[in-house]
Amino acid sequence: MLYQTRKAQMAQSNTSPFSKTDEGKKIARVFKGQQIKVAGAIQRQLSETLPRQEGSVQFYHPSSIEPKALNVRKIASTPEELERCKSEKQILRIVKGEGIQKLIESAEDQLITEFAGKDLFKHREHAVKKFDTDSVGVTVERFYPLAQQFFSALQHIHSCNVWHLDLKPENVFISDDEQLTIGDFGLAIDVNNPPEEAIGFTPGFKPPEVVTGGPITEQADTYSASATLYELLTGRPFIRMPINESIYKDQETFEQYRDTQLMLVGKIAPEAIPFFKSTLTWSYEKRTSILDAIEMLKQCEQQQRSEGTSI
């Protein structure tokens, strides 16, 4: 199970105030030394077609290649979908590498990629149903390795002069062995060959400068990635729905909202607060670089490990 209940999550964090309480120590003893397996990706099945706005998605066994593996296939059914399909395939060829959804070459009206596990949204949804509570989150011991994988993959994408522009839990996949993959490059742009108009981002993950009509830069991905990590750690969205547009009206208002949201991080992994403050900024010009963010995550992980839990 990737996600745990909030109390189990905090009890296993060396830096959480709750882990020092008698209740936290008692819960931590239950988990100490255990290897809690990530929930299975999905039941193996020959085919399952799901309706979507952009064609259909099909999971199937490529038995002629690897019988135990699954691929994901999008099928374009309109001229517009065909153009998007071609564009996404070209982007995937450019950003090919570790932590990136793997393209399987196919007919031009199909986009076939390797199945990389359930997305973060589905992982959380599974835990909420299992524990019958929405107070769930990823343990800190799992969070930092996954966060570093995420930002390292994003650094690779940017080094290829590509901006993703739609990072969110539904587009980040975790396999059974906890390997993270970034997928769904349908809104990504090639900076060397940009479209006339970039249309990206999902409400709740759109950075303040874009909401207020400012420029789209590579730092937009940093904000969206950090908002995704906030949800991974806390089990809750950084920007609550329905969105109150007034939080974006100025820097002071936005930062007050952000700091209120980070109070939950303080209960789980207080050492991570500086990371989130430097990546969830009002100004893209003040947002930390991806390389610096990776270094901050490494330092947070070291601090969390060094403090230890007294049981």
Keywords:
311 residues, alpha+beta, Transferase(Phosphotransferase), domain 1, Phosphorylase Kinase, domain 1
Tell me about this structure.
The strands form four sheets. A five-stranded antiparallel beta sheet has the order 2-3-4-6-5, covered by helices on one side. A three-stranded antiparallel beta sheet has the order 7-10-11. The protein folds into two domains: 3-39 and 118-307, Transferase(Phosphotransferase) domain 1 (Transferase(Phosphotransferase), domain 1, Orthogonal Bundle); 47-114, Phosphorylase Kinase, domain 1, CATH 3.30.200.20. The protein is an alpha+beta fold and 311 residues long. The longest helix has 20 residues, at 140-159. Helix 5 (140-159) packs antiparallel against helix 10 (290-307) and helix 9 (273-279) runs antiparallel to helix 10 (290-307). The protein is built from ten helices and twelve strands. Strand 5 and strand 6 (110-114) form a beta hairpin. It has helices spanning 6-11, 22-31, 79-94, 120-131, 140-159, 208-211, 219-234, 251-268, 273-279, 290-307; strands at 3-5, 47-51, 56-60, 71-75, 103-104, 110-114, 118-119, 136-138, 162-163, 172-174, 180-182, 189-190. It is globular. It starts with a strand and ends with a helix.
